[in-house]
Amino acid sequence: MTGSRRPGGTAADPVVRHVDTPHGPALLTVHPVAEARGVLLLGHGAGGGFGAPDLRRATIAALAAGLHVAHVEQPYRVAGRRAPAPAAQLDAAWLAVAAAVRTALPGLPLLVGGRSSGARVACRTASAVGAVAVLCLAFPVHPPGRPEKDRLAELAEPTVPVLVVQGERDAFGRPPPAPGREVVLLAGDHSLKADLPGIAAAVTAWLPTVLPS
């Protein structure tokens, strides 16, 4: 990791670092807690950042559960580009950041997740990073109006517990439950803005079931 800074200087403030990846620097923001039980690594959606309400609520819930929460801003966004990078580049950058997190916070269980595109990246790489669980917010099952182009194979890749929090009216589809996969349907669409308390409740209830005792 390079370019470390601790805004504000207090122990509870986020620690922001640039992480070198094969496709340029990613931005890693770690929100720390005292006596952490694990680390949750979260990725953003294709066209948005960590101001997304569902990511904010999931972050707050994970911090309350005793996890460090690390936000990963992909290199294309750090470079100021709006169009997302190809999947292989997203995955390679994510793997580099996950390795840096493992080095900086050794010995802690690693959970991964994200919103929409970030959830896809987390699913595709969960086994490679040794994640103990995956959190998917608004997983895009298929492009709107194209159910034949489903991405359920990606959602099935993790061999660890998966929680999917999905809007009932999501134009990107609704994934079915499956062994090892819990699906919580909330009022609203792909933005998951309609039931923010529901997001917090789902994440809060799920985390203790997947964290090592």
Largest sheet: 9 strands, mixed
Rg of Cα set: 16 Å
What class, by secondary structure content?
alpha/beta
Shape: globular
Identify the CATH homologous superfamily: Alpha/Beta hydrolase fold, catalytic domain
Q: Which strand order spans the largest sheet, edge to edge or round the barrel?
A: 1-2-3-5-4-6-7-8-9
Q: What's the total helix number? A: 6
Protein name: Alpha/beta family hydrolase
Domain KANL3/Tex30 alpha/beta hydrolase-like: 38-175
GO molecular function: hydrolase activity
Keywords: Hydrolase
Explain this structure to me?
- This protein is an alpha/beta fold and 213 residues long.
- It has one domain (2-210): Rossmann fold (3-Layer(aba) Sandwich), CATH 3.40.50.
- 31% of the residues lie in helices and 24% in strands.
- A 9-stranded mixed beta sheet has the order 1-2-3-5-4-6-7-8-9, with helices on both faces.
- The longest helix has 18 residues, at 87-104.
- It holds the Pfam family Abhydrolase_11.
- Residues 38-175 form the KANL3/Tex30 alpha/beta hydrolase-like domain.
- InterPro entries: AB_hydrolase_fold, KANL3/Tex30_Abhydrolase, NSL3/Tex30.
- This is Alpha/beta family hydrolase.
Write the layout of secondary structure elements.
Blueprint: E1 2-5, E2 15-19, E3 26-31, E4 38-43, H1 53-64, E5 67-73, H2 75-78, H3 87-104, E6 110-115, H4 117-129, E7 133-137, H5 152-155, E8 162-167, E9 181-186, H6 196-210
Parallel strand pairs: 4-5, 4-6, 6-7, 7-8, 8-9
Antiparallel strand pairs: 1-2, 2-3, 3-5
Helix pairs in contact: 1-6, 3-4
